[in-house]
Design goal:
Layout (H helix, E strand, L loop, with lengths): L1 H5 L5 H35 L3 E5 L2 H4 L14 H14 L1 H11 L4 E5 L23 E3 L6 E3 H10 L33
Helix pairs in contact: 2-5
The structure holds zinc ion.
The site of zinc ion has 8 residues, from loops.
Length: 187
C-alpha cells in the first residue's frame, strides 16, 4: 500500500499496487466470514443454549480520536482494540449464530462478568489482581481472569454490585463519575 501510494500518479505501478492491496483485503474478509460461518454452525449444532457477552461493539469501535474541543485519550491503545474486535468479526458471529440457533442464543450484560467470582458469586474489584489473574477476595478461588469471566457468561451471570455504604452509617454514597468497580485496563 505504501509502495503504491509513492508510485507516480496514473502509472501502471500504482494501479497494480492498489489492485494487489484490494485482493489481499478481500481475502482477509473472506477468511473472516468463513470462520464465522463454521464457528456459528458448530455452536448451533453442539449446544442447546449459546450465551454471548453483550458487548457494545458500536461503542467499542467508535473513533478514539475525539473532537478538536475534546481530544480522545489513549488513542493508540483503543485503535488496537478496535482492530482486534473487528478482525474477529464479533458482531457477525453473534448474528449468524442467532440465525442458526433461533431462540437459543442469549446475550448476557457485560458489566461485572469479569469481577464476579464464578465459584461463589462475590463481586469485588479487588478480586481482579491483574489483566490476566482472578483471585476471589471472599473464597480464594483462583482462575485465569478470562476463563472466570467466560464461566460467568456461560452461566448467564452478570451480577449486580452491592450498594456502596458509608462506614457505619448504612446509607449509600453518591456515585462518582469513575466507577469503583471498574476492571483493570490493559497497559
Ligand atoms: Zn469466590
Amino acid at each position: 500500500q505504501r509502495r503504491a501510494a509513492r508510485a507516480p500518479k496514473e502509472s501502471d505501478l500504482k494501479t497494480a499496487g492498489y489492485s494487489r492491496v484490494a485482493k489481499l483485503k478481500a481475502r482477509e474478509a473472506n477468511r473472516r466470514k468463513d470462520w464465522c460461518e463454521k464457528t456459528s454452525t458448530m455452536l448451533a449444532r453442539t449446544y442447546d443454549v449459546v450465551r454471548f457477552e453483550k458487548l457494545n461493539i458500536k461503542t467499542m469501535t467508535r473513533s478514539a480520536k475525539g473532537t478538536i474541543e475534546e481530544p480522545g485519550k489513549r488513542v493508540a491503545q483503543k485503535a488496537g482494540l478496535n482492530r482486534a474486535i473487528l478482525a474477529q468479526g464479533w458482531g457477525l458471529l453473534r448474528q449468524r449464530t442467532g440465525h442458526k440457533a433461533p431462540g437459543r442464543v442469549e446475550d448476557v450484560p457485560a458489566p461485572y462478568t469479569s469481577l464476579r467470582c464464578s465459584a461463589c458469586g462475590w463481586i469485588d474489584k479487588n478480586s481482579r489482581k491483574s489483566q490476566a489473574e482472578f483471585v476471589c477476595s471472599s473464597c480464594g478461588f483462583t482462575c485465569n481472569a478470562d476463563t472466570n469471566a467466560a464461566t460467568n457468561v456461560a452461566a448467564g451471570q452478570g451480577g449486580i454490585p452491592r450498594p456502596r455504604r458509608t462506614a457505619g452509617a448504612g446509607g449509600t454514597t453518591a456515585a462518582t463519575s469513575r466507577s469503583s468497580v471498574r476492571e483493570p485496563q490493559p497497559k
